[in-house]
Amino acid sequence: MKVLVSDSLSEEGVSKLQEHFEVDVSTGLSEDELVGKIVDFDALVIRSGTQVTRRVIEAADNLKIVGRAGVGVDNIDIDAATEKGIIVVNAPEGNMLSAAEHTIAMMMSMARNIPQANASLKAKKWERKNFMGVEVNGKTLGVIGLGRIGAEVAKRAQGMEMDILAYDPFITGERAKAMGVELTTVDDIAKRADFITVHTPLTKETRNILDAAQFDMMKSSARVINCARGGIINEEALADALKAGKIAGAAIDVFTSEPPFECPFIDLENVVVTPHLGASTEEAQVNVAVSVAEEVISVLNGGSARNTINIPAVKPEVMAVLAPYIGLAETLGSAVAQLLDTNYDKIEISYKGEISEKDTRAVTVAAIKGVLEVALGSAVNYVNAPALAKLRDIEVVESKSETSDEYASTISIGLFQDSNSRSVTGAVVGSEPKIITINGQHVDLVPKGYMIVSNHINRPNVIGPCCIALGANNINISGMQVGRAEVGGQTIMALNVDTEVSEKILDEIRGIDGILDATLVTL
Question: Going by C-beta distance under 8 Å and a sequence separation of 6 or more, which residues neighbour residue 451?
Fold first, then answer.
């Protein structure tokens, strides 16, 4: 079999592939060149440089696997690969320790003004008094995102005798206690922490998770670090806080636009910046290359892959039945996770009707992926979703019943944490997925685009003001569902809208008399 390596890959990874296959290392290929070349290959190994477009996929008649030596897969058309039965894998753990160590290095460089002092001395200046630093011993570190990298950062900070605050919607209090950290909110971290580091994927929920409001809460001595993703910290708000002296410093490795030459804080004296070096260690590059090589070897030799990004292989006749339910389950999981604004320790997945008689393992995995992806982003895939749930002590309970009331088959997904719970039920009507209940109340919704879900009191002059508020902000309503309850009782309203709705507009809706809450769900 033949493997094409189209980006620079460590020699260890190439050598491992050469032990099993004929390997062609051709870097810097244009899309046209790759389209002309790919037809002869069984596997393609890339990094971030190669764009694996639909056109490339359609030309790849023999291709069985695409391996990304790294985490991000934005440069691969996953849908096109899945449609053609091509497995896509990445190497999510290879740079974990490098990223954690770089975070600690950035924190220490910022605390002791090392880059500034180095530049001063190399300019033949002796300015010791200008570079007075602070100790980290006894200080409080706030970790936003306690996944693999965040947990490794916390562990190393504990070794330096720092106190750890953490925010992560998937970590229970019991697990946080076992890790020796105090679980709290982002705002509480902003108020209490001396150093704050972010380790979340960039999602709708985490974009600008540190914004002007949080910088206003911080101590004037606080310092922030971002070695995760550009956009998690609002760059304009960070620049304003640094210039105004609201915080003491920042250490930034990632940016919303790279290279970040127009970034508003890159020239500030109290900022340490590096050019996206979190994974730039010899060890990390070897690790991701070897990891993806092992995946390719396993798949081409008839085995399985550990870090599959797209859906695992299912027999065609089975997939023909399950495919719409796999998509429905993932959508329902995402919807219910967006509706619950706290962490949870149990996911319940219930199958009723004809679907209960099928092998629903792939559907269950899709449901878990949909739930976890809301907070963890592209780090979640169809292979690791159950393991990530287990890692976070989230119990997954599956139940089946052959009886279904109105529809041939239904899937319900519920999330639970103490007294808090949310649930969503869906069905496939023809080939179209539908949401048929939200928190037990009947609706009839096509899960597509944007949806505002609101609990409200069933009485006059509640729904109208909501619609007026959206109209005044130029938000078009494309559909509406209202649950039934006795007058004065609590019921649900779901509004399909054509564009994203800001928190400011949602707050306006929440302020309407009779509205109990309002959540934007993106589907």
Answer: 335, 445, 494, 495, 496, 497, 520, 521, 522, 523
State the pLDDT at residue 516: 93
Closest CA to 296 of 10, 21, 8, 6: 21
3-state secondary structure of 516: strand
Closest CA to 210 of 182, 183, 242, 187: 187
pLDDT for 110: 97
Rg (CA), the chain: 25
Question: What predicted TM-score, i.e. pTM, was given to this entire model?
Answer: 0.72
Segments of the chain with pLDDT less than 70:
311-319
Torsional sign, CA 509, 511, 513, 519: positive
What's residue 486's pLDDT? 82
Give the three-state DSSP class for 349. Answer: strand
Q: Which two tokens stand for residue 439?
A: 């928190």
Question: From CA 13, how far away is CA 282, in angstroms rounded?
Answer: 12
In one-letter notation, the amino acid at residue 69 is A
CB 3 within 8 A of CB 45: yes
Q: How would you classify the pairing of strands 441-445 and 432-438?
A: antiparallel
Question: Mind telling me the catalytic residues?
Answer: 229, 258, 276
Checking DSSP bridges between strand 409-417 and strand 346-353, what pairing results, if any?
Answer: antiparallel
What are the residues whose beta carbons fall under 8 Å from the beta carbon of 128, sequence distance 6 or more?
Answer: none
Encoded amino acid at 170, one letter: F
Per-residue confidence (pLDDT) for residue 313, from 0 to 100: 54
Q: Residue 493's beta-bridge partner residues?
A: 454, 482
Structure tokens that stand for 86 in this block:
């091509």
Report yes or no: 246 and 224 within 8 Å, Cβ to Cβ. no
CA–chain centroid gap for 372, Å, is 8
Q: Is 251 helix (H, G, I), strand (E, B) or coil?
A: strand
Cα gap 414→88, rounded to integer Å: 30
Q: Are 120 and 96 in contact (CB under 8 A)?
A: no
Name 61's bridge partners.
none
Are the C-beta atoms of residues 186 and 212 closer than 8 Å to each other?
no
Phi, psi of 148 (to 5 degrees): -60, -50
Q: Which residues are within 8 A (CB) of 126 and not within 5 positions of it... i.e. 6 or more apart?
A: none
Give the whole-angstrom CA distance, residue 121 versus residue 281: 27
Ordered DSSP codes for 62-78? S--EEEESSS--TTB-H
Residue 50: strand, helix, or coil: coil
Ordered DSSP codes for 181-243: -EE--HHHHHHH-SEEEE-----TTTTTSB-HHHHHHS-TT-EEEE-S-TTSB-HHHHHHHHH
CB 57 within 8 Å of CB 85: no
CA distance 497 to 506: 13
The answer to whether 53 and 250 are in contact (CB under 8 A) is no
Residues 6 or more apart from 356 whose CB is under 8 A from it? 400, 401, 402, 409
Tokens linked to 421: 């719970």
